[in-house]
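hey can u run this one w/ iron/sulfur cluster bound, need the structure tokens asap thx
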Amino acid sequence: MTKPTPLIDSHGRVHTSLRISITDRCNIRCFYCMPAENVVFRPREELLTYEEIERFASVAARLGINRLRITGGEPLVRNNLAGLIERLSTIAGINDIALTTNGVLLAEQAAALKNAGLQRLNISLDTLDDDVFFQLSRRRGIDQVIAGIHQAKKLGFDKIRLNAIAIKSITEQEIVPLATFARQYNLELRFIEFMPLDADDQWQRQQVLTGDEIKKILETAFCKLLPVTRDDASQPAVDFRFSDGQGRIGFINPLSHPFCHNCNRIRITAEGQLRNCLFSTTEWDARELLRNEGTDDELETLIRSCVSGKNAAHGID
Ligand code: SAM
Ligand code: SF4
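ok here u go:
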């Protein structure tokens, strides 16, 4: 059998990474993502089943997708995520499975996830302070998140990253405590510039705390940050190491330094809609094919047209 041609878009970018949202639900309400109240979640039957996700990922894998990231909403609120990871980890061609989580339910699920084949974890951690956590997420739970981080570390995941949002007038005071924590436990910390993804539509450009501003604060508090050459050019982060040898810091700067030219990602929503960018307003309906006897060839055509319709850049600024 001849190998299918890779997923290359009209700008020459080869796509090898698929982000799979498995739910729109969440157990907290970060103001930069969800409204405080009256969130209307999709009925369960509208979400792809684990069987449908597995089939979609298998077709994508034949086209050269080799990395999967599970996200949401909060993926740990969906039943038996370990069961999905187990299915995905048997797909030929998939050599990396990662999860992005808020960490609230991680301590209780980490062992099952690891046993199922999960390799890497991104845990969102914007603060270590209980009150700031409440201010940001409108829920209590920082102790559970920290317990989840310790449990994951104890279990020996290949890589655990902490992701902190960077918002002006909020994040400045969190930078040094977060970096101290990451250095103490030898965890990689990344700051992500605030993007216009909030459900309340309140985002403003001047609220973005840039990676350059955070870097200055870190260098003043600790020591010089030295650039690290990345091993994977498609990684959105710019990485640095502390010159005292203790730890690494990354910056994901979609606003101040967009990285679209290296993007290798496509995403599928919990309802089975394929997108070629986080900010894309166009969707390709995979669920329709998955539920109505669509063939693998038809799914392949859908994935290819999603990739070939990708814009050069996100255009959010
Ligand atoms: N619930 C999981 C979590 O919080 O890690 C996974 C889904 S969440 C949408 C994925 C990541 O997006 C989190 O690290 C979160 O901080 C980040 N995020 C959400 N809204 C954002 C925004 N407006 N700007 C930048 N990052 C955002
Ligand atoms: Fe939930 Fe993650 Fe959104 Fe926060 S960022 S509300 S944890 S989905």
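The chain has a mean pLDDT of 95. anyway lmk if its weird
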